[in-house]
Predict the structure.
Amino acid sequence: MRALLIAAALFVAPTPLLAQDADAPLELPPVVMSTEHPGEIAVEPYDRSNAHAGATPFEGTVMLEAFHGVEGIGRVVDGMVDLSIADPRIAGTFVSHDLVRLRRVLKEQFAYILGAPVDYSGRDMATSHRDLGIQSADMGALVENLQIAMSREGVDFRAQNRFLAKLAPMKDDVVTR
């Protein structure tokens, strides 16, 4: 039971838990929910900018249409995140993260890059990935999951490749080990 509580705490805690004596009562850090985005854990304020999305948007609506609009982008992101949190190669990366916020900012980022009239409100790529210890193999697994999610959404292979080409330069800011 204690292991389940610790696992649950790691899933929602915004900061890592400290090691404790096995007989001591489990103490969890306080969780402050965001009032701006219900269901999200609040984060320290930071400057918001579309420049933080990591890529310039495609021009026109061809790419947005290839992804079936904002709704299709949402399904792609949800599919990629679902695959990634179940993927034993990279699931550990997501354990202590706010998945509600992750899904929201990924949807904003993808929609912005694909040319939807959406602003990106997340942090820049280097800051948001700095302490995650992501390796090239982790990035590869995430891209595989993204490709599966795009295929399931029926995104044309050429559109997938164009999108991946936009995302590829972010690797330098994401991969830190």
Residues 20 and 26 are 8 Å apart (CA to CA). The first helix runs from residue 2 to 12. The chain is about 50% helix and 0% strand.
